[in-house]
Amino acid sequence: MNHCPSEDARWLAAAAALAARARPLSRPNPGVGALIVRDGRVIARGWTQPGGRPHAEAMALAAAGENARGATIYVTLEPCAHESQRGPACADLVAKSGLSRVVIGCMDPDPRTSGAGIARIRAEGIEAEYLPSAACAQSLSGYLITKRHGRPEVTLKLALSLDGCIAMASGESQWITGPEARAHTHAMRARSDAILVGGGTFRADAPRLDVRLPGLENRNPQRWVLTRSTAPEGWRALPSPEAIAGMEGILHVFVEGGAQAATTFLAAGLVDRLLIYRAPVLLGGRPGLGNFGLPSLAQAHGRWHMVERRQLGSDTLEVYDARNSNES
């Protein structure tokens, strides 16, 4: 049967958008999205539930029931093939579902599943295709980086003036950006497993680092401070950027405060995504970054590519991904 690649890509992107509902409550499991489609209409959907179970495919198949027979499921990640005491392997559920077709946007790097999930489905006579999807890979970026590099994904947020400052010369910094940009930052906090500031920012500002958006107040990430000293109550200490490899169960780290913390993570080569909030003001104050060891101007080019740009009130948000940060 002939299928339309553009339609498949559209449904995979929709499944990736659905997967956002799982983040970050699905940790330590990735947030996966699944759509069951028949004749161009969604008949069921699912996403990974809090704590990691049930998985997206199980939720979608349970919602579809007998209507799944003959339909197509679009899933952002290859259905798992390994056994678990917490639930059946999704590849087995899919194989027994009566679905006619499975479209996968991202293969699973977990060696317990990698290639085995799609093979098990095909063995049951179901058409199964891997169609690489940038949207699916982006939705799973924290999981992919964790599996491939042994550490969580790191997003660095900087709120800057037009001249690249994070504060006035006096140290005053509240507020450089407006309410719309600050609300967007809180939404990004709600999507993170852990949020981190430098020791200097912690001592100077005593930040709360909570989520102050209606309906999302329970999405507060773990609070970490970059310090070799003992962390204060309610906080956890990270002695170095490289120590993120030991942050158990964490897929997404949001580095939010301090030029020193930002510089240190960049120097370690551990920043995967930049969120640059730029306000239309000139401060002539404290720069947002220090020397992070860039060896030459030539090597500065090509490291980052813009994936999003939007207006937030009077401020501008630019989002950059590090090249190849979540690729194998």
UniProtKB/TrEMBL annotation:
Pathway recorded for this protein: Cofactor biosynthesis; riboflavin biosynthesis; 5-amino-6-(D-ribitylamino)uracil from GTP: step 3/4; Cofactor biosynthesis; riboflavin biosynthesis; 5-amino-6-(D-ribitylamino)uracil from GTP: step 2/4
Cofactor(s), names only, from the UniProt record: Zn(2+)
Annotated Zn(2+) binding sites: 55, 80, 90
Alphabetized Pfam families for the sequence: dCMP_cyt_deam_1, RibD_C
CC cofactor note: Binds 1 zinc ion.
Active site: 57
The EC number(s) this enzyme carries: 3.5.4.26, 1.1.1.193
Binding site for substrate: 173, 189, 209, 212, 256
Catalytic activity: 5-amino-6-(5-phospho-D-ribitylamino)uracil + NADP(+) = 5-amino-6-(5-phospho-D-ribosylamino)uracil + NADPH + H(+); 2,5-diamino-6-hydroxy-4-(5-phosphoribosylamino)-pyrimidine + H2O + H(+) = 5-amino-6-(5-phospho-D-ribosylamino)uracil + NH4(+)
Gene Ontology biological-process annotations: riboflavin biosynthetic process
Residue ranges constituting the CMP/dCMP-type deaminase domain according to the UniProt record: 6-129
Transmembrane segments: none
Record keywords: Hydrolase, Metal-binding, Multifunctional enzyme, NADP, Oxidoreductase, Riboflavin biosynthesis, Zinc
Listed GO MF terms: 5-amino-6-(5-phosphoribosylamino)uracil reductase activity; diaminohydroxyphosphoribosylaminopyrimidine deaminase activity; metal ion binding
Binding site for NADP(+): 159, 175, 201, 205
Key word NADP present: yes
PROSITE patterns (alphabetical): CYT_DCMP_DEAMINASES_2
Task of the protein: Converts 2,5-diamino-6-(ribosylamino)-4(3h)-pyrimidinone 5'-phosphate into 5-amino-6-(ribosylamino)-2,4(1h,3h)-pyrimidinedione 5'-phosphate.
Family according to the record: In the C-terminal section; belongs to the HTP reductase family. In the N-terminal section; belongs to the cytidine and deoxycytidylate deaminase family.
UniProt xrefs under NCBIfam families: eubact_ribD
Designated name of the protein: Riboflavin biosynthesis protein RibD
